[in-house]
Model the fold of this input.
Amino acid sequence: MTEQPRLAEQNVAVLLAEPFVKWFAAKGWSPRAHQLELLAKAQAGQSALLIAPTGAGKTLAGFLPSLTELAKRPRRKPGGAHRGIHTLYISPLKALAVDIERNLGKPVEEIGLPVTIETRTGDTPSHKRQRQKLAPPDILLTTPEQLALLIASADARRFFEDLRYVVLDELHSLVTSKRGHLLALGLARLRAFVPELQTIGLSATVAEPDELRRWLVSQASPEAMSELIVVTGGAKPDISILDSEERVPWAGHSARYATPEIYREVKRHKTTLLFVNTRSQAELLFQELWRVNEDTLPIALHHGSLDVAQRRRVEKAMGENALRAIVATSTLDLGIDWGDVDLVVHVGAPKGASRLAQRIGRANHRMDEPSKAILIPANRFEVLECRAALDANYLGAQDTPPLVNGGLDVLAQHVLGCACGAPFHADALFDEVRSAAPYVSLDRPTFDRVIDFVATGGYALRNYERYARIRQTKEGLWRVSNPRVAQQYRLNVGTIIEVPALNVRYVQAGSKGAASRGGRVLGKIEEAFLETLTYGDTFMFAGRVLRFEGIRDNECFVSNAPGSEAKVPYYGGGKFPLSTYLAEQVRAMLDDPQRWKKLPEQVADWLRFQADKSVLPKRDDLLIETFPRGNRHYLVAYPFEGRLAHQTLGMLLTRRLDRAGAKPVGFVATDYALAIWSLADMGWMFKNKKPSLAALFDQDMLGDDLEAWFADSWLLKRTFRNCALISGLIEKRHPGKEKSGRQVTVSTDLIYDVLRSHEPDHILLQATRVDAATGLLDVSRLAEMLSRIRGRIVHKDLEQISPLAVPIMLEIGKMPVHGEADETLLMDAATLVEEAMGPEMAD
Amino acid sequence: MNFSLSRATLVAEADFVGIAGERAVCDRRGVLYFPDLRLLAVSDLHLEKGSSFARRGALIPPYDTGATLLRLQAVIADYGPRIVVSLGDSFHDGGGAERMHLSFRERLEAMMAGRDWFWVAGNHDPDAPADLPGETVRELAIGSLVFRHEPSKLRVEGEIAGHLHPCARIVQRGRSVRRRCFAGDGGRMIMPAFGAYTGSLNVLDRAYAGLFRLETLVAYMLGAERIFAISGSMLRPG
Done:
């Protein structure tokens, strides 16, 4: 790498046309080595992956090959035919595309290039889309969903026939989701139109760059990879963990104890970005900061549920450096560049080392100056986790998740999209699909079942032939049977499933929403949360304490409740599970008293107490404690495998414990531990091997028990709903039917029940199980854990609760308790009726 | 959550209710049985809803008719009624009976054999189902009871109706439970929808306005093993 700058300088004139050289000179800049290296590779006809930290000039690097080529292209003669798109830029965020249009437009104008740049997103008006079809811009900035739509149009081939480059921004974040699968299939389609197409991927640091390199090029030749350019360096960030003078709480996620110390830091810096993991944490921290904001510093709130207009105001103020602090969730995670942030405060544990590195990259967007960041653990386990993440960031460890195989629901959507574009031959499409990295291992029978699913639903009871959406012609080509199919497809494209949410609107207190409906919309809030509220309940949203006034016509009415405490807590757990890597680091730290020296004294004391009263687990052991408390018996396990895996483990263990006669009542799961409580003495049962812990934790729980639980787990139903929507089984929207009520649609829960009992091997159920295993249930991680701990379970039967168990025991009552059946709640309600009204009424 | 507590398991599957002086078994599977009349009432079967959707391009699984008939078969086997009243919307659309798979038609006909079967006309199926036995009626009066699809606007003692697909919701200990239900005030009873693909509408919705005496409204919510009678004051909208 050290040789390259000089080499590059010699090449500048060869690689860059004169106007570019002049422009750089006029700016007093010189092209960076990686920009030229990428240009050289692109000019040699290669695709490339550029991995660089924020502030390294990634965007310009990604566009230089296009711009230099476009600069040399002869101008279109007036009246001559329009040329197709030259470069397609794809980003995960609409806002990012808009941002790039601005940032790229400037140099293009200054250099005087005859290049047109336009965006195309969900917000683009239809007349502009029409115009883009007729007179395409040279560079089109868009999102994966828009690409899918373009591919599904009849003129796709002509539209893309002049395409030279596809630039994929924030590739690391795109590839991990179903959006990435859809995009990979779209790329494969583009390569079928234009075989010599080149791709340029721009990415933050990832654990496995080769996965992304394969992703960028056709896998028709096995294991083919793009070129790789890595920009290392950037100044080492200056990260510290807040060593609070206050007592660090045992449990909870609010970090309220640290508010005065956070405020002190905000005062000391120009602009502070405060990251939290969830919306509710953002709300709480914002409230707390304003409570101590004696100097009325401009402190703003930003999260995805807030009204768009309000978000834009905050973003604008931030760009103008008018804010001193912004409390934000992951909406600001990606590469949007705003203002002069000189401090990042991360409240709550980062959950992954790579995520922490990317968030800290937000501060001080110049790569040669160190970023400054402070971590605020919200509880004692988070102190351990922050320490582990901090060590990882210094070590440069990466724990971005490995890529998973492409979803079959996404493939179904793509197959229909291809048919909407032009009739296809199954053999050719199969080869094309397998050239996309996520679908390399797809087998032909599965592919054929997906086609069958798209055509007629793929049911064993073959009675939908006459309603087929695609049909095979005599020549063997599949084509859509009806133009309406293409119309419906266009309304349902994409893989982003929105959680049902209601607008939150201001009304007068006590009006129940009936009288006034002119109030302002504050944002959107999940239906599931609202369902638990009663008239008059207070909760926190949009930086205020609000009183719930009722729900009317798909809107949630609220009034201001200033000065009140928010009564209803919103579940405060993190939405990202603890990464495997950090989990291992935390276990390693528990096992190594030498490393406790770096921990705050109160936390180190806590661990010493644990060693004294119970035991600390060895790095690869699983510690299980049992103890009585009140009239219950408790089992606390410490797998450190993340909340999702623990939740699944909890479900499966309670089933087994129930069979063994332990009479389990419920459980809670955190990122670090799992607590189950029961009526029988589990400690006694394990000691007498009735059953043994080894048998209880045997891997066979992932067989029948898991299958039986699948039957009616709401997690599976939720996963199925997503698969059903993405695969096109049911529709997201229908022209003119956006507000269809419960009676008009068929709930996916009902479909799931019927399909599962009548055709359990249906391809969509297969897709659901695979999804659940890696997603909400995290079965894969649980499986790894069960195999790791075989023969390594350490049981401590205690007289009373251990120090390590305190945090999770405090979560009981604060978190949703699983295992307690809905039937019990109904029973309680029915009993109340009987008590109140006498038995004859309830009969 | 499949995990049920032992105290919920010992209770019987059905409860008795009184409607305008008639005694009926309120079965947790969503049917009413009048032992004195040997009459079974079931509402909103919506047979062939799956194929009705498929016709319009949504290829949802075609097993709903089979699933609904299987459940119906079980309750008929349990009670052995002399009269069966299907309270309307028996088929999801007018062409439903025609589209029905032969095996399902045979199953249905076997169930109908040897008893009086009334198809009450519904808004989805105003006409008699094609080529099926049974008598199609607009409404049916037996004893002090009157069976019709849509509940009438005026107060009618002894009315058994369907159409609205009632469900009820309670919130206990911060959690919300929503179930299909029978909704009754002692004079009128609105039955839950029985069909496998039928959705539901909260009894507190405006669509129910004026149908019940609110002070005696009870939602008989369908549980896994029994009916739960919940008074109107405990119910939540949504």
